TrEMBL record:
Residues 1-20 form the signal peptide. It comes from the Bacteria. This is Mono/diheme cytochrome c family protein. InterPro entries: Cyt_c-like_dom, Cyt_c-like_dom_sf, Cytochrome_c550/c551-like. Keywords: Electron transport, Heme, Iron, Metal-binding, Signal, Transport. Coiled coil: none annotated. Residues 19-102 form the Cytochrome c domain.
Amino acid sequence: MTRKITFKLSIILLLSLVLAGCGGQGSFENETNPEVLARSCIGCHGTDLSGRSAPSLLELDGKYNEQEIAEIILNGLGRMPQMKNFSEEQASLLADWLLEKQQ
């Protein structure tokens, strides 16, 4: 009985950690460095932004402009959660930075 409870608690903890990594809702108050802001992306989009459990962020050029990317960051889209901890200015900085990284 104890092994079953331990196993179930381990699964719950693991799922919590995975879900917490996607959407990274840490504090970015007053942050203006887009590379720091991008840390919230790596949980789902990978450390190099080429995709992981979410699509690549290196192929956005032509699909979205800076304003559309900023809106997606702020409001979410599909499986992507809204980034409640980002200001409009931060979302715009990150969107511009992402467009600069396009291949």
